[in-house]
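Title: Request for sanity check on Glutamate synthase [NADPH] small chain prediction

Description:
We are preparing a figure and want to confirm that the structure record we downloaded matches what your pipeline produces today. Could someone re-run it with the sequence below and paste the raw structure tokens into this thread? We only need the token string, no images.
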Amino acid sequence: MADANQKFVTVPHAGPAKAAASERVRDFDEIYASFRVAEGTSQSSRCAQCGVPFCQSGCPLQNNIPDWLRLASEGRIEEAWRLSEATSAMPEICGRICPQDRLCEGACTLEQAGWETVTIGSVEKWLGDQAFDNGWISPLRPLTELGRSIGIIGAGPAGLAAADRLRSAGYAVTIYDRHDRAGGLLTYGIPGFKLEKHVVARRVDRLIEGGVKFRLNTDIGKDIAFDDLRGAHDAVLVATGVYQARRLSAPGCGSNGVVAALDYLIASNRKGFGDAVAAYDDGPLNAESKRVVVIGGGDTAMDCVRTAVRQGATSVTCVYRRDRDNMPGSARETTNAEEEGVRFEWLAAPKAVLGGSDGVTGLRAARMALSAPTLDGRWTVEEAPGGEFDLPADLIIEALGFEPENLPVIFDADDLAVTDWKTLRVAAHGFATTLPGVFAAGDIVRGASLVVWAVRQGQDAAAEIDQWLRNQDSVAA
């Protein structure tokens, strides 16, 4: 029987079908189709089966990528799925939204050798969709109930991943979240054209069916005291993420018509659910018939520009202070935005918001020049003399990143230590905070980061909580 692997010489790189830009901007559906079985197995067969799998080391979850590509190429699709889910609580979600070009696919030996990468992310998504379509998703049924309770603050990717692992181990798990739907940024931050909401909902439903309890519309420190929550559980995991937006400090930045990216994206996603959103319906968070300028170069900025296009903006421009090669976001998302008609002003930084009390009329920006590389390889920038220019705008969206909220104050927990960056301080190489029995994971520890890192930390924190509780039992015995 011929080997089903290492066919990169004869099988060309091919991604899944992508909707044409003229069609996809009409709705918020995912723009990429899932592979058909023949496509999935064929693309999996391109893997070189390296002795040292750089794709795996490039994945924050250390997924066993060559192994499940091999199984998929041989038609053993359910086995491939089982191996995929062994290291990830939500592979079909990561397959959709991870910046694979900067992670596993960017590290692929074929990519480095000029053969074009294996389409790892698309195969991962396909395996997950096959699993749900064919009923391969195992219900959460612990072998035994341990009689211990875990409280998780935050229903985003870190909290959901931790809940999956803890409930599977036999713990009673309750997740608390301030929003009315679980999922965190998966639900309210990421637009449907990258991640349709039913994909998140089916993961949440699996947790509910497995016995995980959700207390939504619940603000810890307001609706429930943090000390009371600690008293109700044997351990607590803080997985709140970081939601405080960095804002412009340029003159005029407080004008009507300057909005934070997350406010804008949440409003759009709520409309997608059919919610009544006054700030959208009345216009402030709606790009329809407006000239839109988005400031920033990360994936959130790309989400904003592409959302504005779908809302019917007259024009959409992205302003970023570095060049394309130095932007932090996914190159794939930038290409998608360009295909959809977004204009990019590279090497440009905001100087002032133009307009008056009635609203903005434009953004004054300055041309920037690359100055010197930093230790992480990105270049610093400095203003180029005489390079100011104006961009017309009716809506300016700030996509400048996120910072942690002041959790010690919100939780009324002075002993909950934070770092200089206001993230929660945890033990070296671990997740224990300075409060006994309280752990933290995800962006509230790392700072604003990728969903895949939140999943990794949620899973690892769950393992540490499990070990900590078992040690407590051993001491008590």
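Thanks, this matches our download. The first strand starts at residue 149 and ends at 153.
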